[in-house]
Specification:
Helix content is 18%, strand content 30%. The chain has 10 helices and 32 strands. It has an 8-stranded parallel barrel, surrounded by 4 helices. The termini are far apart. Bound molecules: (2S,3S,4S,5R)-3,4,5-trihydroxy-6-oxo-oxane-2-carboxylic acid. (2S,3S,4S,5R)-3,4,5-trihydroxy-6-oxo-oxane-2-carboxylic acid (GCB) binds next to loops.
């Protein structure tokens, strides 16, 4: 599809140019397990420009020649190597003030050199997060498209890569109603290549994926391992946990192998975040990881971790950071986990409303906190659209593929606050059964709504979930707090309920009486009432109030909000605690 010089009139009149790029969509099935592998970072300074009219895609500028065959210079609209620099990873909104509200196409360019280590090696280009859609071009050829702002994707480039390479990525951060999330959200729409980019070398035959966990229902005595090979159909692999003296040979057929065997493990929990060095080797390849073993189980209205009943003392967290946007790093995540565990006395985080970066669950494993992970099936997405469904299912499939070996992740959430329509029921019940079919070791949940007319917990989706999440804003959006007590009394769910959201906005440092909206005292009082009501309900087995930190939300523009949702227990600076923080921390200190 080389751009034909002189086709200027044609280029500017083509309206369905996007359909040219519909093929080459990459999905969860191409994701490779990276644990223990050496990656070569492509982070750093990339050249960047905005492309609000999408001229790059319309006119195939990625393959445009700069000279005619007889050497005459052509007028090009994109001059990739001379574009200004931008940092990768970063959100362009936070890099350049003039791009703060920019939500269209951005073009990224860089070169890289590749020296083969082994004549048979295979090379993959890996992106950890590009918001929302990425079109990838290598050495003048279109190679991949990916949808979904918060999950990783890989593309094999073995046959295209040269010694010196040019890489172009067109990033489309526009909002639209067929996407997941759709155009309306209560968080900020950051754009760009905002997580790591790297190259991954694999041998010709390699281990593509593995799932290692404690086998449920075996009295904590058995470990199960499944894996998938690439480049070979049958053979054998070796699975080892040296600390436990485990060394198992496992045969594979049709690229897949699995085993269940007895093991005497020290179980993972927030109080004892024990991880084991684990390895799987096959042919000339090896994966290594540090993995914890635990059993998370729901029986009746109760939740058990390793056979011990638990109340999930949690809080919700957005990835949003006042300086970094949606880009994050290990020290930011460590500070969050430390704050929840050590100061809020919690054991659980609702990682809302989309997959956060890979390091979050890894650090949660290491530091000991349980996680609820979620995909952005948020509010009124296009439940009737098949395209929207495949996007959503692919996002949860990519998330599960990425984090399934993380003991800390105990709940997969298939969505948040969606009205109970037939289309929504079909969409979300299919997601729930998909998740159940790929992962039997975790609970499936969703943050549901209450029937506010009949005042009871009622949602058809609840029948497809293991835990019912409930968002309620009694005392805030619903000023009559007494309704909450009636709702809890009128309901008799046969599953555990987690109050996945309650809260009130308070501007940090703004003080007043407990009846004055937007002040810390109001929020403090609301937390007192909420914890009292919630803790006296027999079937509520956890809560993740909304939210730990104030976060950027373009739809919040009053004088207290100033572009932020102020329901944080802590200010946007991630340091200054509001009065309600101490109410929750005291409440959690009283629960085992
Ligand atoms: C909700 C949403 C959450 C919002 C929150 C609010 O129910 O799930 O995304 O930010 O309410 O503050 O209104």
């Amino acid at each position: 599809m080389a751009k034909a010089p002189g086709n200027f009139n044609q280029d500017i009149h083509v309206s369905d140019y996007r359909s040219r790029y519909d093929g080459s969509k990459v999905t969860s099935s191409s994701l490779i397990s990276i644990e223990g592998r050496i990656t070569e970072s492509l982070n750093g300074k990339w050249n960047f420009t905005v492309d609000p009219y999408e001229t790059f895609l319309r006119a195939n500028w990625y393959s445009a020649p700069e000279y005619t065959a007889d050497g005459r210079q052509l007028p090009v609209d994109f001059d990739f190597p001379n574009m200004d620099f931008i940092n990768v990873p970063s959100c362009w909104n936070m890099e350049r003030p003039e791009l703060f509200y920019y939500e269209n196409m951005g073009i990224y360019y860089r070169t890289f050199r590749y020296e083969k280590d082994d004549k048979d090696e295979r090379l993959f280009l890996c992106f950890e997060g590009v918001s929302y859609r990425a079109y990838v071009f290598l050495n003048g050829k279109y190679i991949a498209m990916h949808d979904g702002a918060s999950t990783p994707f890989d593309v094999e480039i073995t046959n295209l890569v040269q010694r010196d390479n040019t890489l172009l990525v067109a990033v489309d951060a526009s909002r639209n109603d067929l996407r997941v999330p759709m155009s309306n959200t209560d968080w900020f729409n950051y754009g760009g290549i905002y997580r790591d980019v790297f190259l991954l070398r694999c041998p010709k035959v390699f281990i593509k994926d593995w799932f290692v966990r404690l086998q449920p229902g075996t009295s904590f005595k058995k470990i199960a391992v499944d894996f998938e090979m690439d480049g070979i159909d049958s053979g054998s692999a070796v699975f080892e946990i040296p600390e436990l003296g485990i060394h198992k040979e496992i045969a594979f057929e049709n690229k897949r192998g699995s085993i269940i065997f007895e093991a005497d493990v020290d179980l993972w929990s927030p109080e004892n975040p024990k991880l084991y060095d684990v390895r799987l080797s096959a042919c000339n390849d090896e994966l290594r990881d540090r993995i914890g073993f635990r059993e998370f189980k729901v029986v009746g209205n109760s939740i058990f971790l390793n056979g011990k009943e638990r109340f999930l003392k949690g809080v919700s967290v957005h990835e949003d950071h006042y300086i970094l946007g949606k880009t994050t790093n290990e020290s930011v995540i460590r500070d969050t986990i430390r704050l929840v565990k050590d100061e809020l006395n919690g054991c659980f985080i609702r990682v809302a409303h989309y997959p956060h970066t890979r390091a979050f669950a890894r650090l949660a494993d290491e530091m000991g906190i349980m996680l609820w992970e979620e995909i952005p099936v948020y509010w009124a997405i296009s439940f009737a659209s098949e395209k929207t469904y495949s996007d959503a299912e692919n996002q949860i499939a990519e998330l599960i593929r990425r984090d399934k070996n993380r003991a800390s992740v105990v709940v997969w959430s298939v969505g948040n606050e969606n009205a109970d329509t037939d289309d929504r029921f079909k969409f979300m019940s299919s997601l729930a059964s998909f998740v159940h079919s790929v992962d039997p070791t975790r609970a499936v949940s969703a943050a549901c709504l209450i029937n506010e007319v009949d005042l009871k917990i009622e949602d058809r989706l609840a029948g497809c979930l293991d835990i019912i999440g409930i968002n309620e804003y009694y005392g805030w959006y619903k000023p009559d707090f007494t309704e909450l007590g009636r709702i809890l009394e009128n309901s008799n769910p046969d599953k555990p309920v987690i109050i996945t959201e309650f809260g009130a906005d308070a501007r940090s440092g703004f003080h007043g009486t407990k009846n004055m909206l937007w002040c810390e005292e109001f929020q403090e009082e609301l937390y007192k009432k909420q914890v009292k009501e919630i803790s006296s309900c027999r079937y509520i087995k956890g809560m993740t109030p909304w939210i730990l930190y104030d976060f950027r939300a373009a739809r919040r523009q009053n004088t207290y909000q100033e572009g932020f949702n102020r329901k944080g227990l802590v200010d946007e600076d991630r340091k200054t605690k509001k009065l309600a923080f101490y109410v929750l921390s005291k409440f959690y200190s009283t629960i085992k």
